[in-house]
Every structure is written in structure tokens, then in C-alpha cells.
Amino acid sequence: MRATLVTILAAVLLIPACASREELLPKSAVTPAGVDLSGTWQLRAENDDTLRRISEARREAAGDGQGIVLPPKGTLSPTRRRSSDGTSVHVFLETGSTLKVSQTDYGLFISFDRAVVEEYRFGEKRETNVGPIVADRVSGWDGNAYVIETLDQDGAKLIEIYRLNAADGSLVRTITIVHKGVSEVDVDQVFDRI
User: Fold this and answer.
1) Per residue, what are the HEC states of the chain?
2) At 73, phi and psi to the nearest 5?
3) Is pLDDT above 80 for 185?
4) How far apart, in whole angstroms, are the C-alpha atoms of residue 14 and residue 85?
5) Does the pLDDT value for residue 83 go beyond 80?
6) How far is CA 8 from CA 13, 18, 19, 133, in A?
7) What's the CA gap between 92 and 136, in Å, rounded?
């Protein structure tokens, strides 16, 4: 009886260890007919609060300012420390109040406040990095929306969706970060063409 109980307990403890990390599914490389996200876009004033919310989520993920520990004198590289609940996927999230989107036959180039340009290839599935932080990424079309999914080593997922609102011609960007089944960020941003 006791041996059976120990065996069952050991099996239950091993199940989570055997669970593999999520695999991102590829997106379509085929641009839907008539969909062009190109243009210069300005965040609507009523959405300015989304930038603050995203910034707060980044700070929290980095340990609320406690994310970097200065190295002792005489060492060559800093030691990095994350909070126990922090995720590294936040470093892949770019924001800005002005977006310039250039759409080609093969990909999107998105400039955030004329400072950072991100490149996404239609149907891509690759590894991406920001310095030493590595994540898996897929991007491509899902219906009339362009979807970018980035999955970090801890299983936190950043999902960005860009789509045109047929009613008013605005660009809607949805940003979601999910970790361990909990939504850390979930915002919609609406941009008008300028």
C-alpha cells in the first residue's frame, strides 16, 4: 500500500516536469485581398492611458525597479535578477503614440515614434532576441488581422494584433500578455491615419 502511494505521488510530481513548453503555431504568409496596414498613425488621445498601463506592467515585470543589481567593483558584467513573478517577454513589446507602418509583399515594418523599427515577415516562425533574452516568434495573417506571437523561455506569451476598423478606417492594435493563465496586459489602442 505504502509503495503504491509513493509511486503515485512520484508520478504526480513528474507530470509537470514532463510537460513541454507551448509550441507557437505558424500564421499565414498570404496577405488578404485589399488589406493594407500602411500609413502613419496617431494614437487617439483617449488611449494615452494605455501607454502608462503598459509602462507600469513593464516595471512590475522587471521587479519594480529592482531588476538590475549593480556588479561588485572589478567585475566585467552586471548580474541580472528578475522578480519571482516577472517575465522577460515585456522586453519585446514596443510602444509609441505614432506608428509608421510600411507593408510590402513579404512583411511589415513598424516604426514606433520614429525611434524603433520592428520587422515582421509574413508567415515567419523563428527565434528572436533582445540582448541575452531569447524568445520564439511567429507572425502572419489570421483573417484580415496581422498577428504576432512571442513566447519567452518562462512560457509568458505576448500577442499583438493589428487590424483595420472597417467602420472608421482606424488601425486597432490589441496587446495581450499572458503568463500561467493570468493576463498581465490586455489593452486595445486605436490609431487614426495622419
Assistant:
1) CHHHHHHHHHHHHHHHHHCCCCCCCCCECCCCCCCCCCEEEEECHHHHHHHHHHHHHHHHHCCCCCCEECCCCCCCCCEECCCCCCCCHHHHCCCCCEEEEEECCCEEEEEECCCEEEEEECCEEEEEEECCEEEEEEEEEECCEEEEEEEECCCCEEEEEEEECCCCCCEEEEEEEEECCEEEEEEEEEEEEC
2) -55, 140
3) yes
4) 23
5) no
6) 9, 15, 17, 37
7) 11
Asked if residues 115 and 99 have their Cβ atoms less than 8 Å apart, the reply is: no
Residue 139: name the closest of 108, 111, 165, 104 by CA.
108
The reported pTM is 0.79
Find the mean pLDDT for residues 80-109: 83
d(CA 189, CA 187) in angstroms, rounded, equals 7
Neighbours of 16 (CB within 10 A): 7
Q: Give the position of cell 515567419.
A: 124
